[in-house]
Amino acid sequence: MNNELTDDQKLGFVMMMDLSGSMDRVLPMVKIDSKAFVRCARVGDQFGANAFSDNAWWVYPSGSDPDIVTVTPGLKETEAAVQLIEKLNTHNITLGLIRI
Q1: Over the stretch 39-58, which tens digit does the pLDDT of each residue have?
Q2: Quick count: other Cβ atoms within 10 Å of Cβ 99?
């Protein structure tokens, strides 16, 4: 069985990141890995990024009624998500983000 995606197959995912206090020491590694994972998205893939501690909320996309996004040529969606992931921390987890 071949598990590799071909160019015409699209992937959809919602990434969940733990921002509870117990993650404080490893958060820098979580952010590196999360940003790398998002940057692997290809044009046509769909994704969203959520975070949780006591509650869960959308990191990307944001807005009053967020939904997963489709990656467009130029990859602006992945870079926008990467910028928001970089700002996350375990001590200031609200950042005005949308609670789920």
Answers
A1: 999 999 999 999 999 888 89
A2: 8
Q: What is the pTM of this model?
A: 0.81
Domain of residue 47, residue span: 13-99
How many folded domains does the chain comprise? 1
List the CATH number of the domain containing 30: 3.40.50.410
Give the per-residue SS3 of 5-67.
Answer: CCCCCCCEEEEEEECCHHHCCCHHHHHHHHHHHHHCCCCCCEEEEEEECCCEEEEECCCCCCC
CB contact at 8 A, 49 and 17? yes
Backbone dihedral region for residue 62 (phi beyond 0: left; psi -120 to 50: alpha; all else: beta):
beta
Quick: pLDDT tens for 22-39: 999 999 999 999 999 999
